[in-house]
Specification:
ATP-binding; 2 domains; globular; 314 residues; Rossmann fold; 35% strand; ATP binding; kinase; alpha+beta; Tumour Suppressor Smad4; six-stranded antiparallel β-barrel; Diacylglycerol_kinase_cat_dom; DAGKc domain-containing protein
Length: 314
């Protein structure tokens, strides 16, 4: 096995099939032209990214690159963090975004241009970023999942669930904004309690709640606009129960992060987060719908080596 040989894990259905077109017409020809040493595998079913990454690690690959959306990245990261073959920090992860959500790459300096993204892989520039781990309940069973971007609960998780489901419909994909607006009409704000580093900081009805390592989610929204990927802390944003009119009048501010200045918004930072609720509080991480409360988050500082356009000194 060549030391720098890259294993690309391609999700051909990401972005409604965009990832396959991008791989075939853009990325593959660039790799061949630059004479980069690589292998590639296609995912065929949910969580295949995890299985293929785990197989790659067992075979000795130390550079794993996702071609898809944030969900594909999440599966690869879960393989890296779950295995005990090699120290996770010795494996580099990269991404060439071509799915419906590529928010993570914006925060960690991965070039959006395909030519630049491939060139970046050659340079071997990297950063070390924090990794989160969340415990949750799914079908009555306690489970855990690692994540690298943002976890959403409440309204956020409801919208994500509906958006993911809409991709499978015969009549095309509903826009994120349309799903968001339709969910507003039926959503019931859950009563939640939040403890950060063991101290209770919140108890009330909440519209939405985010626990973030990075800044962007939901296609460019900034629910945790001050998050830093390598500071060893979660950024937590909670929005109290508010009227539909207030939500609509502040939607634009979610895209520049200024909504956190609203009186109904509270922000916190911490290393561990515990969330309980009277009703089931549903969860999504890195754009993937999971289970529900009770939830427990912990952070692992600078445990992921990311092939980035930034440098470790950044």
């Amino acid at each position: 096995m060549e030391e720098n040989k890259i294993l690309f894990i391609v999700n051909p259905v990401a972005g409604g099939g965009k990832a396959l077109k991008v791989w075939t017409k853009n990325i593959y020809p660039i790799l061949e032209n630059k004479k980069i040493s690589f292998d590639y595998l296609f995912t065929q079913k949910p969580y295949d990214g995890f299985n293929l990454a785990m197989e790659g690690i067992k075979k000795g690959y130390k550079k794993l690159v996702s071609v898809g959306g944030d969900g594909t990245v999440n599966e690869i990261v879960n393989a890296i963090m779950s295995q005990d073959i090699i120290d996770p920090i010795e494996i580099s992860v990269g991404s060439i975004g071509s799915g419906s959500g590529n928010d993570w790459g914006k925060s960690v300096g991965i070039p959006a241009n395909y030519e630049e993204a491939v060139s970046n892989l050659q340079k071997d520039n990297f950063i070390l970023q924090d990794v989160g781990k969340v415990g949750y309940i799914q079908k009555g069973v306690e489970k855990t999942r690692y994540f690298v971007n943002v976890a959403g609960m409440g309204f956020d998780a409801e919208v994500t669930y509906k958006a993911n489901k809409s991709k499978k419909r015969l009549f095309g994909k509903l826009s994120y904004s349309l799903i968001l607006l339709s969910t507003l009409l039926s959503f019931k704000d859950p009563y939640i309690e939040i403890k950060i580093d063991g101290e209770k900081v919140y108890e009330n009805q909440a519209l939405t709640l985010n626990v973030g390592i990075c800044r962007y989610s939901g296609g460019g929204m900034m629910f945790t606009p001050k998050a830093k990927y390598d500071d060893g802390l979660f950024d937590i944003t909670v929005v109290d129960k508010i009227s539909v009119a207030t939500i609509l009048s502040n939607l634009r501010k979610i895209y520049d992060g200024s909504f956190i200045n609203h009186e109904a918004v509270e922000t916190f930072r911490g290393k561990s987060v515990e969330i309980t609720s009277k009703e089931k509080l549903y969860l999504e991480v890195d754009g993937e719908s999971l289970g529900h409360s009770p939830l427990y988050f912990e952070i692992f500082p600078q445990r992921l080596k990311v092939l980035s356009g930034l440098s470790i000194e950044h």
